[in-house]
Amino acid sequence: MVRRQRKPGAASPAGAPRKKHLLSGLIKCSCCGSNYTISGKDYYRCAGEKERGTCGNKVSVRKAPLETATLAILQEGLLTESHAKLFVEEYRREAARLAQGDERRDVAGAVRLKQLEVELANLARNLVEGKVSPMMMTMIFDREAEKATLEARLSQAAAANPLGEILPHPVLLDQFHQKVEALRATLDDDTIRTEAAAILERLIESVTIYPNAPDGPEAEVVASIGALMSFAINGNSPPRGGAGGCSMAVVAGTGFEPVTFRL
Asked: Which stretches make up the Recombinase zinc beta ribbon domain (predicted)?
């Protein structure tokens, strides 16, 4: 089942109260758009039906199996080899484009540097010949300052690697699987469950319940490939650019299909 990718949800704010249920705020009703909220001890139900009586979706979903299936799909079903490969290709293509832009800027800077050197040589010749004036001294100071700034910029550009080299897609895919597995393991530890749950909340965009699917009720899990790949590359933090970063807009638009499973 393929549906259009939706806008990623916002991350939980810092200092927010601990979530009692892992998928709270992420489960949606396909019929009315309301959140699924906890009902009793072990079930999620559509808030539109349960609290307001405005929805006909009476499908209740057991909490534990839904959470287990969602995490398994996050780890193994959402980020495929083709997705990771496409992401890496787009990353490298954009990195090359940006590098070419830096090279063009460096060429312009190098040309201007040569011009400054000629101008300063001419001004120095005038000084030797005794042609000194306040305007000439100002011109010398200004050009010396511009020359120093250009030399520093060109020196930094020569040594810089703005985006760095991204790992091969099989390595990134394996890295992602291992990190999600580690997060799943920490959910059983009450001392760090809150932090792990917050990270998973940023990775999972939504879990939508379809009560009237042809083969029975289904849940659709949606995530952003940009968020998943950023997690694989950068760990628990969002990308910030620099070596190993992947904040390029071209990558965020990479096609990504949701995954569904039977309830």
From this structure: 22-72
pLDDT digits (tens, 9 = 90+) for 204-250: 888 999 998 888 889 999 887 778 888 888 754 433 333 333 333 33
The model carries a pTM of 0.60
Tell which residue, 209, 202, 201, 203, has the closest CA to residue 36: 209
The 3-class SS string of 71-96 reads HHHHHHCCCCHHHHHHHHHHHHHHHH
- In whole angstroms, give the CA distance from residue 206 to residue 259: 11
* Number of domains the chain is built from: 2
Q: How far is it, in rounded angstroms, from Cα 107 to Cα 97?
A: 16
Cα distance between residue 37 and residue 23, in whole Å:
9
Domain that holds residue 68: 27-82+167-262
Instruction: Band the pLDDT of 49: cuts 50, 70, 90.
Output: very high
Residue after which a domain boundary falls, among 159, 182, 206 = 159
